[in-house]
Amino acid sequence: MEWITRLMEALGSPGAGLAIALENVFPPVPSEVILPLAGFTAGQGKISLIAAILWTTAGSVVGALVLYGLGAWLGLERLRKVADKIPFVTVSDVDKSDAWFDKHGSKAVFFGRMVPVVRSLISIPAGVSGMPVLKFTLYTAAGSLVWNTALILAGYALGDNYELVDRYLGWVSTVVLAALAIAIVWFVVSRVKARRS
């Protein structure tokens, strides 16, 4: 928390944007902490509210593009080769996921930007599937703008109590992680049963 405050004090709104860009790629400090803090800082008159929203949205896009680039570098063919060597995963799984993303990728990127944990990860399949970079950037920017604005305004309105945002949204991250863990366990168990039968 202290490094984020120092970053904003030193660089102003661009500091908040830099923190969000880093959070997208290395998420030890979630946006649920950074964005309300930016709103609180804006409420104190130290940075501009509008600038905080714009810079953090730009930071979200930059961070997302790094992961998109990672997905694009990995690519569908390389992912197929990797899948062929992973237990319980088949090339068919990769192809089905790619087909799903081709159909629903725009919505997945837009709404995914508003879901903790998914917010960063959604950029990778977008890159793998070859979603046009301009399209990806626009949907990422739109989804990030909604999420960032909501959390910054919450921090701005709550003032000294801005930490309540993270307290109330923290459970969402826990639920998402639990759902992912359950999905992975279900997937593995179903594959084991299928192989035995």
UniProtKB/TrEMBL annotation:
<feature type="transmembrane region" description="Helical">
    <location>
        <begin position="168"/>
        <end position="189"/>
    </location>
</feature>
<keyword id="KW-1003">Cell membrane</keyword>
<keyword id="KW-0472">Membrane</keyword>
<dbReference type="GO" id="GO:0005886">
    <property type="term" value="C:plasma membrane"/>
</dbReference>
<feature type="domain" description="VTT">
    <location>
        <begin position="29"/>
        <end position="156"/>
    </location>
</feature>
<dbReference type="InterPro" id="IPR032816">
    <property type="entry name" value="VTT_dom"/>
</dbReference>
<feature type="transmembrane region" description="Helical">
    <location>
        <begin position="136"/>
        <end position="156"/>
    </location>
</feature>
<comment type="similarity">
    <text>Belongs to the DedA family.</text>
</comment>
<keyword id="KW-0812">Transmembrane</keyword>
<protein>
    <submittedName>
        <fullName>Membrane protein DedA, SNARE-associated domain</fullName>
    </submittedName>
</protein>
<feature type="transmembrane region" description="Helical">
    <location>
        <begin position="47"/>
        <end position="76"/>
    </location>
</feature>
<keyword id="KW-1133">Transmembrane helix</keyword>
<dbReference type="Pfam" id="PF09335">
    <property type="entry name" value="VTT_dom"/>
</dbReference>
<dbReference type="InterPro" id="IPR051311">
    <property type="entry name" value="DedA_domain"/>
</dbReference>
